[in-house]
Amino acid sequence: xxxxxxxxxxxxxxxxxxxxxxxxxxxxxxxxxxxxxxxxxxxxxxxxxxxxxxxxxxxxxxxxxxxxxxxxxxxxxxxxxxxxxxxxxxxxxxxxxxxxxxxxxxxxxxxxxxxxxxxxxxxxxxxxxxxxxxxxxxxxxxxxxxxxxxxxxxxxxxxxxxxxxxxxxxxxxxxxxxxxxxxxxxxxxxxxxxxxxxxxxxxxxxxxxxxxxxxxxxxxxxxxxxxxxxxxxxxxxxxxxxxxxxxxxxxxxxxxxxxxxxxxxxxxxxxxxxxxxxxxxxxxxxxxxxxxxxxxxxxxxxxxxxxxxxxxxxxxxxxxxxxxxxxxxxxxxxxxxxxxxxxxxxxxxxxxxxxxxxxxxxxxxxxxxxxxxxxxxxxxxxxxxxxxxxxxxxxxxxxxxxxxxxxxxxxxxxxxxxxxxxxxxxxxxxxxxxxxxxxxxxxxxxxxxxxxxxxxxxxxxxxxxxxxxxxxxxxxxxxxxxxxxxxxxxxxxxxxxxxxxxx
Length: 503
Description:
Blueprint: H1 5-11, H2 20-37, H3 45-52, E1 68-73, H4 79-87, E2 105-111, E3 114-120, H5 131-145, E4 148-154, H6 161-173, E5 177-182, H7 190-194, E6 205-206, H8 215-225, E7 242-248, H9 254-262, E8 280-286, E9 289-295, H10 308-323, E10 326-332, H11 339-351, E11 354-360, H12 367-380, E12 389-391, H13 403-415, H14 420-433, E13 446-453, E14 458-463, H15 469-483, E15 491-496
Parallel strand pairs: 1-3, 1-4, 4-5, 5-6, 7-9, 7-10, 10-11, 11-12, 14-15
Antiparallel strand pairs: 2-3, 8-9, 13-14
């Protein structure tokens, strides 16, 4: 007996499977509902800007390189103190001893919505030899690179022969100069600043870099002569080299790995730990395109426990890490994973950089050590299971080619942006399945979420109450399960907003 045709039609489900477009439409519907519900809560203009989304159009943005501002002056006139004042954080090393700064160090700075590169230099002196001559040469290079020069003079000491020599150098350069009379801590020293008119560089701007007095006026004067784009620098190439910092404990093989990648003895390698002190940049071609690798000094225990050259090397390493986009943390597989290794990984995460972990000297491991190392990794690195892992040998070059896909994965996650509608749709499903625990008779409710920025991805969640740290970690874990973010830290900040009071 044959099966009736009408029975076949009645038992076969002909409903089409939901498509991606259906999911997107559903998420957008949730997004509209959530946005409408936000009208019942007190929101600031900043909240509204986040919810509406930042406009990322670059039609009116400068297309060239950032303008460069170089800070020039004699030793110990307060150049690095001024750098920290402009950056609004302690970045440059400052000591009463002259000559602490030796290198030409660049920082990303901003004032009144204008971005520029700030160059800190060593003290410029005439008739010097040896390392002091090289420091002076670096300052002269900084003048050539600059679009505007901040010439810092000690107002208390007054103009010296070295200052007069710098004036001649600046006039030959033809660059706009803002004359800064530093150490004018109060009105008593205003007359000392006025005496610097004799240098012939225009009005001296009184400043106290230590206390911040007059710093805003100085920066306003810089912006008056600062071009939109640099006339001396080079514009970044489209898809140009991504910056990769090699970090780790001393003597784990960072310099050996850089030499292996470069195919030459680019940096000094020695069995003595701490051979590298200054970050060394090298453009290296991997996977058919250039990368900017930076070999850094080994990060010793805690920065405040180091002294002398090691102290300054640690600070430079931190600066190099902050300028990088992704960090490759090298771990010596022949030694147990130490607290120092964990602190370095935490430093990368706290800095907000993409992360790849490379286990060096892997080819020399025996089966027993490999077994216990895997146990250590599972136990000690449980907080960074999202970081790509590469087993390499810097000495032989084994598997160094696997760095490229790991770096690509980490950087793609670091740059990733999630549409607001999809983010809220996913969070809605997560919260419906696992709501926040009730505390004190109240249960906080997630009102709306948006991705505020990338590099690294930062999410802002608007709620009706405080979210516990454990629940935040749960949300981060679920977001990673849904969207990946392999190789990138993600940040979740919560903004608690109260309902509007009825009038």
